[in-house]
């Protein structure tokens, strides 16, 4: 591992040590957090997960984006969890999600209000993760879903998530590239899905295996945009790995390999 990669990981670990751990009840003391993430409905969902045993504690933020926050959680036995909370107040995000929902046969007659769309978006990621896992694509194992809260396997250790390929390129780029093409083929042919936003930002390596994540926008192969999104994924993948010195296949060759 390079010196820069070691420094990045060390900084991530320091960040975990510094952040304050929170219980569910602590959310009531931060008005800004309540308004953006932990509204009353979301807190009630978290309480239900606490009562069911799917969740025992929620700690600090692992990652934050315009559509969701991911928190480091644990079960009672210490098993680490990723608790992804989709922002019900994200009006900007709402504008772009309909293109991925419309045309998806699994989600018909979805209401257009923001909360309904966000709940559908969360359900969509949960189901996409399930179907990808069944196709033997390594993804965070989905555990539970309700409303805008998704609980899944935490990829990392002690609250430090595994780095994205963007942060830490693979030690063996050729092997990783081959593995990724296998995942794309399984995703397309067995799960009948296209990731739709694939790049070095939503791929990581953990315990020697490539892990694909962030799949809320993934669409079935029958979706009107599926071929466009697949070609975009292939372009992104080839661009990244070619920069690492991998002798990549042409986009057309990858397309034929993936679609069979």
Structure notes:
It is a single chain. With 260 residues, this protein is an alpha+beta fold. It folds into two domains: 3-161, 2-Layer Sandwich (Phosphorylase Kinase, domain 1), CATH 3.30.200; 173-259, Transferase(Phosphotransferase), domain 1 (Orthogonal Bundle), CATH 1.10.510.10. Helix content is 43%, strand content 18%. It has eight helices and eleven strands. It has helices at 3-18, 31-36, 40-52, 91-101, 114-134, 173-189, 226-243, 251-259; strands spanning 57-64, 68-74, 80-86, 142-146, 149-153, 156-157, 160-161, 193-194, 203-206, 209-212, 219-220. It has a five-stranded antiparallel beta sheet with strand order 1-2-3-5-4, sandwiched between helices. Strands 6-7 form a two-stranded antiparallel ribbon. A hairpin with a 3-residue loop joins β1 (57-64) and β2 (68-74). The longest helix is centred in the middle third of the chain and has 21 residues, at 114-134. The protein is globular, with a radius of gyration of 19 Å. It starts with a helix and ends with a helix. Mean pLDDT is 87; it is low at 12-35.
